[in-house]
Amino acid sequence: MNPKTLPLPSESHPEVTAFFDEATNTISYVVRDPASQACAIVDSVMDIDYAAGRISFEHADRIIDHVRMRGLEVAWLIETHVHADHLSAAPYLQQKLGGRIGIGAGIVKVQETFGKVFNEGTEFQRDGSQFDRLFSDGERYRIGSMEAFAMHTPGHTPACMTHVVGDAAFVGDTLFMPDGGTARADFPGGDARTLYRSTRRILSLPERTRLFMCHDYGPGGREIRWETTVAEQRTNNIHVHDGASEDAFVRMRTERDATLSMPRLILPSLQVNMRAGHLPPADDDGRIFLKVPIDAL
Q1: 213 in a domain, yes or no?
Q2: CB of 69 closer than 8 Å to CB of 97
């Protein structure tokens, strides 16, 4: 989908409630249709004590409490991409609240890549069938009376999608707040040049469009923030402001990424998230294990 042919955001102004997870610096969202009780949940978090091998659902339970207290009806559980820094709670939320789990159609590339990394057998399907909906570029869907559309914005991962709902866009890891710049592009399937072009697609949306980040790390010690606008990003983003060239971005991103260590939760996150938030199948004794491939990343 060419930036010049982007669907225009509708005039709706969804109510957006953010839930910050301090352990992973992730922001999850409940996106409510102001004309009905319909909502979507974007980028949920399942808690994990990695050292102890224990999972829990405190973060997801906060979202459940919010939805139930307001009498909301969950239509969608959206994953902007296969996260490498936190585990998705989508199946838990679906069990409690309903809704359909959706991700970009590029998930099949991620599953093929990491199915090999984790030496998954033939029982691991690499066709995205673990999800209820695979969104293609420009595909439209509804949250109550609101029309939303999915925009393919790869570069960080092949499956990254920006979801535009009325005057709000949920950008995943493609962009950070203006003083944070952009996400890394050195994971398998990532590409700095592709990432730059994806940021320009997002910044081709109307300047008033509200942009909601998946992560914030408070650069320079500032308080955590997660909402900005296209206009603010085009003016102030330290990596992709208007006038920042593609070649300069690729050089910067490549050099910077070479200095970064792997995210702390990348190994459990990828194994779970490529399964739509489900844990790997139990063994014959009913025990569940996560793998640690050596020198694979």
Answers
A1: yes
A2: no
**Domain tally, the chain:** 1
Q: What is the pLDDT of residues 21-43, one digit of tens each?
A: 999 999 999 999 999 999 999 99
Say yes or no to pLDDT of 137 above 70: yes
CA gap 61, 199 in Å, rounded: 33
Instruction: Round to whole Å and give the CA distance between 92 and 156.
Output: 26
Summary mean pLDDT of the chain: 95
Of 187, 171, 74, 85, the C-alpha closest to 132 is: 74
Copy the structure tokens of residue 239: 């990596």
d(CA 151, CA 137): 5
pLDDT per position as a tens digit, 221-265: 999 999 999 999 999 999 999 999 999 999 999 999 999 999 999
Residue 219 in contact with residue 180, Cβ under 8 Å? yes
Interatomic CA distance for residues 1 and 197, integer angstroms:
12
Q: Say which CATH number the domain at 51 has.
A: 3.60.15.10
H-helix or E-strand spanning residue 247: helix 246-257
Q: Is residue 199 part of a domain?
A: yes
The DSSP element (H or E) to which 115 belongs, if any, is helix 107-117
Crossing angle between the packed helical segments 246-257 and 192-202, to the nearest 10 degrees = 120
Cα-flanking dihedrals φ and ψ of residue 234, to 5°?
-65, -30
Q: Which residues pair with 150 in a beta bridge?
A: 163
What's the CA angle centered on 99, arms 93 and 104, to 5 degrees? 95
Assessment of whether the complete model's pTM goes beyond 0.90: yes
Domain membership flag for residue 290: no
pLDDT per position as a tens digit, 163-222: 999 999 999 999 999 999 999 999 999 999 999 999 999 999 999 999 999 999 999 999
Classify 152 as helix, strand or coil: strand
pLDDT of residue 3: 47
291 inside domain: no
